[in-house]
Amino acid sequence: xxxxxxxxxxxxxxxxxxxxxxxxxxxxxxxxxxxxxxxxxxxxxxxxxxxxxxxxxxxxxxxxxxxxxxxxxxxxxxxxxxxxxxxxxxxxxxxxxxxxxxxxxxxxxxxxxxxxxxxxxxxxxxxxxxxxxxxxxxxxxxxxxxxxxxxxxxxxxxxxxxxxxxxxxxxxxxxxxxxxxxxxxxxxxxxxxxxxxxxxxxxxxxxxxxxxxxxxxxxxxxxxxxxxxxxxxxx
Length: 235
Fold this sequence. Notes:
The chain is an alpha+beta fold.
């Protein structure tokens, strides 16, 4: 297996320190979550408040956290952005992108359209079952809304090389592994360029996968959903 962690640029401040253990740390390390359990957890997410007002210069965007089941457990689809992109070069992300008022009737349509454009995911194959809270991305450019989607079989994916270097999937059991996840606490100065994240004692989430590091908004969305999945699913 490749070494855990990737070459993603992480602007870690000198004061960074280890954060809290996740809620799943005391759970069964051999637990395998099925797609039906993901669906039930997604449908039991707390009812959302109205979308927050967008800060000036912030644009709406959406991502699709798409799950399918293989070998008896749920897996989530992730992409890697090219180094040639204008921002977030080489980062691991969910399929997604900016809302286009000429193409999208709503943010669900944005997430599905972008997933189709980026990785060839057929929108008709996705059952969007939940919306998660919107959040401003670390650089403050987008108000990002995640959607949970279910696919009834492993999809055939074909990444657009302009937007995606690679597309891969990860099992929930791997994401919950003690060697994969950690939280750090950062005191974020303004000169790191992390926009609304500036402040003291901010939680920053990381998933160290073979050859790649998931962090930023993607890791925060994953950590939030996994925490809900673990607490909402009967043992």
